[in-house]
Amino acid sequence: MSNITSILLLIFLAITFLQSGYDKLFYWKDNLSWLKGHFAKTPLKNQVPLALANILVLELISGILCVVGCIELLVSRGKVFGFYGAVFSCVTLLMLLFGQRLAKDYDGAKTIVIYFMPAIMAVYLLNWK
User: Fold this and answer.
1) What's the total number of domains in the chain?
2) How confident is the model over 97-113, as pLDDT tens digits?
3) Which of 2, 5, 9, 97 gives a 20 to 30 Å CA spacing to 115?
4) Which one-letter DSSP state was computed for residue 42?
Protein backbone atom coordinates (compact mmCIF):
# COMPACT_ATOMS: atom_id res chain seq x y z
CA MET A 1 0.00 0.00 0.00
CA SER A 2 2.68 2.46 -0.99
CA ASN A 3 0.03 4.75 -2.50
CA ILE A 4 -2.38 4.77 0.43
CA THR A 5 -2.21 8.57 0.88
CA SER A 6 -3.05 9.14 -2.78
CA ILE A 7 -5.84 6.57 -2.65
CA LEU A 8 -7.39 8.17 0.43
CA LEU A 9 -7.20 11.63 -1.13
CA LEU A 10 -8.81 10.36 -4.34
CA ILE A 11 -11.59 8.67 -2.36
CA PHE A 12 -12.18 11.95 -0.51
CA LEU A 13 -12.40 13.87 -3.79
CA ALA A 14 -14.58 11.21 -5.42
CA ILE A 15 -17.07 11.31 -2.55
CA THR A 16 -17.06 15.10 -2.53
CA PHE A 17 -17.71 15.55 -6.24
CA LEU A 18 -19.95 12.57 -6.94
CA GLN A 19 -22.24 13.48 -4.05
CA SER A 20 -22.31 17.12 -5.11
CA GLY A 21 -22.97 16.14 -8.73
CA TYR A 22 -25.73 13.77 -7.62
CA ASP A 23 -27.31 16.57 -5.61
CA LYS A 24 -27.20 18.98 -8.55
CA LEU A 25 -28.53 16.37 -10.98
CA PHE A 26 -31.46 15.15 -8.89
CA TYR A 27 -32.32 18.46 -7.19
CA TRP A 28 -31.65 20.74 -10.15
CA LYS A 29 -34.59 23.09 -9.58
CA ASP A 30 -33.80 23.58 -5.88
CA ASN A 31 -30.14 24.27 -6.62
CA LEU A 32 -30.98 26.61 -9.48
CA SER A 33 -33.48 28.54 -7.39
CA TRP A 34 -31.02 29.02 -4.53
CA LEU A 35 -28.14 29.96 -6.84
CA LYS A 36 -30.22 32.53 -8.73
CA GLY A 37 -30.73 34.34 -5.44
CA HIS A 38 -27.09 33.87 -4.44
CA PHE A 39 -25.82 35.44 -7.68
CA ALA A 40 -28.61 38.00 -8.15
CA LYS A 41 -26.28 40.97 -7.62
CA THR A 42 -23.35 39.68 -9.66
CA PRO A 43 -22.41 39.69 -13.35
CA LEU A 44 -23.34 35.98 -13.39
CA LYS A 45 -27.01 36.64 -12.59
CA ASN A 46 -28.15 35.76 -16.13
CA GLN A 47 -25.71 32.86 -16.51
CA VAL A 48 -26.68 30.75 -13.48
CA PRO A 49 -28.23 27.79 -15.38
CA LEU A 50 -25.22 27.56 -17.71
CA ALA A 51 -22.76 27.93 -14.82
CA LEU A 52 -24.59 25.27 -12.81
CA ALA A 53 -24.53 22.87 -15.77
CA ASN A 54 -20.82 23.57 -16.27
CA ILE A 55 -20.03 22.89 -12.61
CA LEU A 56 -22.18 19.73 -12.69
CA VAL A 57 -20.23 18.34 -15.64
CA LEU A 58 -16.88 19.21 -14.07
CA GLU A 59 -17.87 17.66 -10.74
CA LEU A 60 -18.95 14.43 -12.41
CA ILE A 61 -15.79 14.26 -14.51
CA SER A 62 -13.67 14.95 -11.42
CA GLY A 63 -15.41 12.31 -9.35
CA ILE A 64 -15.32 9.64 -12.05
CA LEU A 65 -11.65 10.28 -12.79
CA CYS A 66 -10.86 9.99 -9.07
CA VAL A 67 -12.68 6.64 -8.82
CA VAL A 68 -10.89 5.32 -11.91
CA GLY A 69 -7.64 6.71 -10.50
CA CYS A 70 -8.13 4.73 -7.28
CA ILE A 71 -8.70 1.57 -9.26
CA GLU A 72 -5.69 2.29 -11.46
CA LEU A 73 -3.46 2.82 -8.40
CA LEU A 74 -4.66 -0.41 -6.82
CA VAL A 75 -4.40 -2.53 -9.97
CA SER A 76 -1.31 -1.25 -11.74
CA ARG A 77 0.12 1.55 -9.56
CA GLY A 78 -0.59 3.90 -12.45
CA LYS A 79 -1.22 7.53 -11.61
CA VAL A 80 -2.58 9.03 -14.82
CA PHE A 81 -6.32 8.97 -14.09
CA GLY A 82 -5.85 9.95 -10.47
CA PHE A 83 -3.64 12.87 -11.48
CA TYR A 84 -6.22 14.14 -13.95
CA GLY A 85 -8.97 13.60 -11.40
CA ALA A 86 -7.05 15.73 -8.90
CA VAL A 87 -6.36 18.42 -11.52
CA PHE A 88 -10.02 18.52 -12.58
CA SER A 89 -10.96 18.71 -8.90
CA CYS A 90 -8.69 21.73 -8.44
CA VAL A 91 -10.08 23.47 -11.53
CA THR A 92 -13.64 22.82 -10.34
CA LEU A 93 -12.86 24.17 -6.89
CA LEU A 94 -11.21 27.26 -8.36
CA MET A 95 -14.34 27.93 -10.41
CA LEU A 96 -16.48 27.53 -7.28
CA LEU A 97 -14.12 29.82 -5.37
CA PHE A 98 -14.39 32.45 -8.10
CA GLY A 99 -18.18 32.30 -7.89
CA GLN A 100 -18.20 32.61 -4.11
CA ARG A 101 -15.83 35.57 -4.21
CA LEU A 102 -17.92 37.21 -6.92
CA ALA A 103 -21.04 36.78 -4.78
CA LYS A 104 -19.10 38.20 -1.82
CA ASP A 105 -19.75 34.98 0.12
CA TYR A 106 -16.45 34.97 1.96
CA ASP A 107 -17.45 32.22 4.40
CA GLY A 108 -18.38 30.01 1.44
CA ALA A 109 -15.04 30.85 -0.18
CA LYS A 110 -13.21 29.81 3.00
CA THR A 111 -14.99 26.46 2.92
CA ILE A 112 -13.83 25.85 -0.64
CA VAL A 113 -10.23 26.47 0.42
CA ILE A 114 -10.58 23.59 2.90
CA TYR A 115 -11.46 21.28 -0.02
CA PHE A 116 -8.74 22.75 -2.21
CA MET A 117 -5.94 21.74 0.18
CA PRO A 118 -6.40 17.96 -0.18
CA ALA A 119 -7.03 18.38 -3.91
CA ILE A 120 -3.75 20.21 -4.49
CA MET A 121 -1.99 17.69 -2.24
CA ALA A 122 -3.32 14.92 -4.50
CA VAL A 123 -1.99 16.74 -7.57
CA TYR A 124 1.41 17.00 -5.89
CA LEU A 125 1.57 13.36 -4.81
CA LEU A 126 0.27 11.97 -8.09
CA ASN A 127 2.66 14.09 -10.16
CA TRP A 128 5.70 12.26 -8.76
CA LYS A 129 7.29 9.78 -11.12
Assistant:
1) 1
2) 999 999 999 999 999 99
3) 2
4) S
